[in-house]
Amino acid sequence: MAQGIGRVPCERFDDLVDQSVRLVRVMTGCQFTLADIALEIAPLRTHGGNMSLGEEDQPGVDGLLRLFAEAIGLSFHTVRTYRWVAARWPKDQRQDGVSFEVHRILASAPDAYELIQHPPVDERTGESR
Predict the structure, then answer these.
(1) CA–CA dist 29, 40 (Å, integer)
(2) Chain-centre distance for alpha carbon 126
(3) Strand duo 8-9 + 4-5: pairing
(4) Residue 5, beta-bridge partner list
(5) Which of these, 86, 73, 3, 75, lies nearest to 42 by C-alpha position?
């Protein structure tokens, strides 16, 4: 009798993993696109940075992000996190094939760019990822 994982045969499990990896890539692309939009709406300033002339009448960053989040049906905290991750990972530093969540986790690491370029070996697949 063939071995299985959960309620599916091993071959089906592998197919489901492949399908899910493709979905995570799509999801990551969507998350980074939303993050870049949030960053365009409310760019990050240096800590304690001053507002430009004319910005005093604008809602603050939190207000802008809340307005955007409500308009697209996401939580303020999700949009704020996406924006922060996009700021930490400029487009040319993002690692293709690595999930948004991994980018988020590594965003605060001092050696994030090095870590994402040299991932550890996955014990299940034997691949670096």
Answers:
(1) 16
(2) 25
(3) antiparallel
(4) 8
(5) 86
Which residue's entry shows tokens 């696109």? 33
Structure tokens, 12: 């089906």
Structure tokens at 42: 């409310």
| Spatial separation of the C-alpha atoms in residues 43 and 52, rounded to whole Å | 12
Q: How many helices (H) and strands (E) does the chain have?
A: 5, 2
Domain ranges of the chain: 9-44+58-117
pTM of the model: 0.81
List, in sequence order, the alpha helices (H) in the chain.
Answer: 10-41, 61-72, 76-88, 100-106, 112-117
Cβ count near 83 (within 10 Å):
25
The conformational region for residue 86 under phi > 0 = left, psi -120 to 50 = alpha, else beta, is: alpha
Instruction: Let me know: does 18 contact 97? Beta carbons within 8 Å.
Output: no
The C-alpha atoms of residue 74 and residue 1 are separated, in whole angstroms, by: 46
pLDDT < 70: residue spans in the chain: 1-2, 47-58
> Do 89 and 103 touch, CB atoms closer than 8 A?
yes
